[in-house]
Design goal:
298 residues, Rossmann fold, 8-stranded mixed β-sheet, 11 helices
Length: 298
């Protein structure tokens, strides 16, 4: 299995390198630089062993900046194996990476996916010495539902009790930054509001108190001073997770004095940005990280 994922990494890296990297041999170099440990069980819930993959830099024995990635799919679809292309820029920047799967709606309704990701974050803190994770330089990211989960890890306080199923006894670490790719900030808006989406509603099923739960898992509910810096990337023609959500989030964070940046992709829809757009986005990401003392390692 490890060899299969290593090959997938190499093939995906090759495609990325051809379109975005200035170095033709970068893909091979990248595969040689990472020790890949796939399908580690970080939590068992609903009789399911939940897995994550660790990509740790070879040849280092000091704490490394670490990215925690959560896939999208409106909490009811997708998997971590589909995320490799989104991880390539982080390998190129020399970061350790943790790629997380979580319970989808068909296995457990809300807030299960968020509870799982809270546990994954705790697992990273508990395993920091084993894999050289720097708990002071953890960045959380994801696209769509994964963006919501990343925002939630950076914003929703531990006191909400959403970490109740976690095996790790460590405190919930505070991410150093959040990179939110067109994520949901107001969950009620996509289950009962004007931008209602059938896929999002599936995460709540027929629960009677879904508005209450949706508010509980909405990052916009908890905006306050002292949050980590947040970058949001969103297309202004997104009809899946409306651009308005990004604008509202940006305004709320600014009002609370939280350092945050909104990168707008003119005409952009729900992801599927062009190579040129993604190049521009990652220039902004690198600048954002450097501003907050989270530079690339190479």
């Amino acid at each position: 299995m490890k060899n299969t994922i290593a090959l997938s990494l190499l093939l995906a890296a090759s495609a990325f390198a051809q379109s975005l990297s200035p170095s033709a041999d970068w893909a091979t170099h990248s595969a040689n630089q990472y020790q890949i440990t796939p399908n580690i069980t970080y939590l068992t819930a609903s009789n399911v062993d939940l897995k994550l993959d660790v990509y740790a830099r070879r040849g280092v024995n000091t704490p490394q900046p670490t990215l925690i990635y959560m896939h999208g799919g409106f909490w009811v679809a997708g998997n971590k194996e589909g995320a490799l292309m989104s991880l390539m820029p982080w390998f190129e920047m020399g970061w350790n990476v943790v790629n997380v799967e979580y319970r989808l709606g068909r296995v457990a309704l809300a807030p299960a996916a968020l509870e799982d990701c809270m546990c994954a974050l705790k697992w990273v803190a508990a395993q920091a010495k084993t894999y050289n994770f720097d708990v002071n330089r953890l960045v959380v990211t994801g696209e769509s539902a994964g963006g919501h989960l990343a925002l939630s890890l950076g914003i929703i306080p531990e006191e909400t009790g959403l970490d109740r199923e976690c095996a790790a006894a460590t405190r919930l670490p505070k991410p150093a930054a959040v990179i939110n790719w067109f994520g949901v900030a107001d969950v009620n808006d996509v289950i009962d509001g004007p931008h209602r989406a059938n896929a999002a509603m599936q995460w709540f099923g027929a629960m009677a108190n879904r508005e209450e739960i949706a508010k509980r898992v909405s990052p916009l509910t908890y905006i306050r001073p002292g949050l980590p810096p947040i970058m949001t990337i969103h297309g202004d023609n997104d009809t899946t997770v409306p651009y308005e959500q990004a604008v509202r989030l940006h305004a709320a964070l600014k009002g609370a004095g939280v350092d945050n940046v909104l990168v707008t992709i003119p005409g952009g829809k729900h992801g599927n940005f062009t190579p040129e757009e993604r190049t521009r986005i990652y220039v902004a990401v690198r600048d954002f990280l450097a501003k907050h003392n989270l530079p690339a390692q190479n």
